[in-house]
Design brief:
- 23% of the residues lie in helices and 27% in strands.
- The protein is α/β, with parallel strands linked by helices.
- It folds into 2 domains: 35-146, Immunoglobulin-like; 157-476, Rossmann fold (3-Layer(aba) Sandwich), CATH 3.40.50.
- It is globular.
Length: 478
């Protein structure tokens, strides 16, 4: 089976991560920070900024301003203190060259922080004061396959989650569906732009149906409440079985969008509100900070169970091909997609984007470096898990990765401060080598959505036979 680290040529834009960008607000073309419009980084040695060999790594920084000098500093990914500094070699056309020797550079991810001197202190541009000098960041991976991954998985991890599964399986979905609304191609495009934070039609090659239908749905929840969501499917063809897609949301407590884009790609799609609230309230209560003393006390215990109930419901539908159920999502949705892929063998494939909450021991180490002391770059200093850390370990996405057997298609924004690359790569590295797994680095991209990643994910699903048209009409009929 494949173990792939792929290059992505075209980068898209917007906050967090239809396949992975499931946000219930209007479309915008703004990019999430720390993307720096005046600075563009590249390397003649690697388009993806993932390196496996060489005595010296070369980086080019193209400045979009008249420039005098570029200073740089090298940091462990996410660590404030620099352990190397320098001045970039100047070039024509405001281009600069940065050289990073690899001798004694431990495997892992690194930030190059730069400061561009334009000869000015501050400048008023378009009625606002812009900071000078201009600062930017470039993150790269060095021999990431050899990066040390801490082992925080509790000894009773699988038993704990199997017990939780039995609890949810004992509760029938008891699905209640609302009024059905039909959307034609033009209506789907309008809904994408106005309510789903998507362009009107960004993957015409993958569209299988011009008309879809959608309704509200709610299911019996794990806590005596309900699991609310939007259901969308291709307009009915009697006797046909469809692949299904469970769409899991990014973090926060907010409205959910109808998964119409998934439906016109040929899926019965279910997007759920994981906090046990309706999908279209005018206002949502803020999420509270937590200090769980046991794994069951953590809010994600019931969040995981709500995701499981949504899967149970999809499996109960007579029009779902239960051999082709996909899970996807961005940010928290990438985290939960990883959880479901590792927890439940009914998941046939997963497309987690910018997956959040992974490699928590290493994240704690970076906080320790930034807040209390600095041990330099190298093997992580010994880290003793606190009692809360031991609870959180049951929810660390990388601890579910060991049990993933289905094909997976990941991405990671290299300058993402919310889902750092050391976390996503820990998930990827922990997935068994025999699994068909692909990871696409997104150089220069932060906690963001990418249209081309979605398009490549749709084609990947087609190649694996998970899309309706890829499987053929005959196999989709009962």
């Amino acid at each position: 089976m494949k173990h792939t680290l792929m290059m992505l040529g075209v980068l898209g834009a917007f906050f967090c991560s239809a396949m992975t960008h499931n946000l219930a607000w209007p479309w915008s073309d703004g990019m999430s920070p720390p993307q720096t419009p005046y600075l563009a980084f590249s390397s003649p040695q690697s388009d993806t900024l993932m390196f496996t060999e060489g005595d010296e790594l070369l980086f080019t920084c193209q400045a979009g301003l008249r420039s005098v000098e570029l200073k740089w500093s090298l940091h462990a990914n996410g660590v404030n203190k620099a352990y190397r500094t320098g001045v970039a070699e100047g070039g024509l056309a405001n281009r600069f060259l940065i050289r990073i020797p690899t001798k004694s550079l431990p495997p892992g991810f690194y930030d190059i922080q730069v400061q561009l001197d334009t000869g000015m202190t501050n400048v008023v541009s378009r009625n606002r004061l812009e900071a000078r000098p201009v600062k930017g960041i470039c993150t790269f991976g060095w021999k990431a396959d050899e990066m040390a991954i801490p082992d925080s998985r509790p000894s009773d991890f699988k038993a704990f989650w199997e017990t939780a599964r039995r609890k949810m399986d004992a509760i029938a979905p008891d699905a209640k569906l609302g009024e059905v609304t039909v959307f034609d191609a033009a209506a789907i495009g309008r809904y994408n732009v106005e309510s789903a934070c998507l362009p009107p039609s960004y993957d015409p090659q993958g569209i299988a149906f011009d008309s879809v239908e959608s309704c509200k749905i709610n299911l019996a929840g794990p806590d005596g409440g309900r699991v609310y969501g939007w259901l969308a499917k291709p307009s009915s063809v009697p006797g046909r079985k469809y692949p299904a897609m469970l769409v899991l949301p990014g973090a926060g407590n907010s409205k959910r969008p109808r998964p119409l884009e998934h439906a016109r790609h040929g899926f019965i799609a279910l997007d759920i509100q994981v906090h046990g609230l309706d999908v279209d309230l005018e206002a949502y209560p803020p999420l509270k900070r937590e200090d769980p003393k046991t794994p069951e006390e953590y809010s994600y215990y019931n969040i995981h169970l709500r995701c499981l109930q949504a899967l149970n419901y999809l499996c109960s539908r007579p029009d779902v091909d239960t051999s082709r159920i996909i899970v996807c999502g961005g940010s928290q949705g990438g985290r939960l997609s990883t959880v479901m892929a590792g927890w439940d063998p009914r998941i046939a494939a997963a497309v987690p984007s910018i997956a959040h909450f992974a490699n928590q021991p290493h994240l704690n180490w970076t906080k320790l470096c930034n807040g209390k002391r600095m041990d330099g770059v190298g093997e992580n200093p010994p880290y003793e898990l606190s009692e809360q850390d031991k609870v959180i370990a049951y929810y660390d996405a990388m601890n579910f990765a060991r049990d993933i057997k289905c094909p997976v298609f990941y991405n990671m924004g290299l300058v993402d401060p919310v889902s750092p690359p050391f976390g996503i790569f820990a998930i990827f590295k922990n997935i068994p080598a025999a699994t068909d797994k692909t990871l696409i680095p997104l150089p220069g991209s932060a906690h963001d959505w990418c249209a081309e990643f979605d398009r490549q994910a749709w084609r990947w699903l087609e190649r694996h036979g998970f899309c309706l048209r890829a499987a053929g009409a005959a196999s989709d009929k009962k």
